[in-house]
Amino acid sequence: MENGRIHHFLSDLELHYLYTLEWSSYVEDIREQYPLLPLEKTISIAEEIGVEHPRENGARGPYKVITSDFFLIIRTKDGIKSCVRTIKPVDNLNVRELQKFEIEKRYFQDLDIQDWNLVTDQDLPTNFIKNMDWLHDCKTINNRPNITLDIIKSVSPILYRGVKTESLGLSNLALKYDDKFGFEKGSCLFIVKFLLANKIWVTDMNELINPSKKLQIYDLRADTNQLLG
Fold first, then answer.
1. Which residues pair with 82 in a beta bridge?
2. Buried b (16+ CB within 10 A) or exposed e, 104-133
3. Which helix (H) or strand (E) is 95 found in, with range?
4. What DSSP string runs through 132-184?
5. What's the average model confidence in pLDDT over 19-48?
6. At CB < 8 A and 24+ separation, what contacts does 2-8 make?
7. 3-state DSSP: the chain helix, strand, coil percent, rounded to 5?
8. Which pTM does this prediction carry?
9. Out of 33, 69, 174, 211, which could bridge 188 as a Cys pair, Cβ 3.0 to 4.6 Å?
10. CATH numeric code, 126-228
């Protein structure tokens, strides 16, 4: 999923969850830090369920606008639907946090959005997150000014054959092909990571990618040049 927006996060956990959302073929839109407005609505809900509404600067400050970490538009077999995900580490869960989540959940129920869920660090796939941390900066060629899409189109079939047929670990294989093409060191590794990050090459993302070992990739789904546009 690519919506062309810059996302802003308050925690690494939120960023890691974004990785799973961007990777999903079912997510149509992502809106982070979604404000629950009007403020009067969440104040009313807090009063109804008998809990203190969050305030700015402690108990004596003005009421604070509650935000949901992710408001999502997703595609399902029954059509497009909205859902909400709030992200919190397990170690930070307490009675007060659960009270605030109840306000949030009821706010969306009143909007007829029933799919609200809490996601914790224990719900995220560890190896997938580590792989995406490693790949994410290579998702766009803007981070590598000496690499163009035309270069990637030209060399990716040769790199693909090398990865499939040679026994070298990924890092050493990439260096070998840097020398072969006359590229700056690190260029071919960037290209491989770009192809993986954009799902042009497919590997098992739940298996940890070790650059010192041979990369296992599946057969291409389609012609690389076609996928690159």
1. 73
2. bbbbbeeeeeeebebbbbeeeeeebbebbe
3. helix 95-110
4. HHHHGGGSSGGG-TT--HHHHHHHHHHHHHHHHH--S-HHHHHHHHHHHHTPP
5. 96
6. 3/29, 3/30, 5/30, 7/32, 8/32, 8/33
7. 45, 15, 40
8. 0.85
9. 174
10. 1.10.10.10
Q: Which two tokens stand for residue 154?
A: 């030209």
Candidates 116, 91, 118, 102; CA nearest to 53 is: 102
- Amino acid (one-letter) located at 145: P
- Summarised one tens digit per residue, pLDDT across range 149-172 is 999 999 999 999 999 999 999 999
- pLDDT of the residue at 143: 78
For the chain, which residues make up each domain, given as ranges?
12-123, 126-228
Compute the distance between CA of residue 156 and CA of residue 192 in angstroms, rounded to an integer. Answer: 8
Q: Distance (Å, rounded) from C-alpha 181 to C-alpha 175?
A: 10
Q: What count of residues does the chain have?
A: 229
Give burial (CB, 10 Å; 0-12/13-18/19+) of 103. buried
Element spanning 34, H or E: strand 27-35
**For the domain 12-123, what is the CATH code?**
3.40.1350.10
Q: Report whether 124 contacts 16 (CB < 8 A).
A: yes
Rounded to 5 degrees, what angle do the CA atoms 137, 142, 148 make?
A: 115
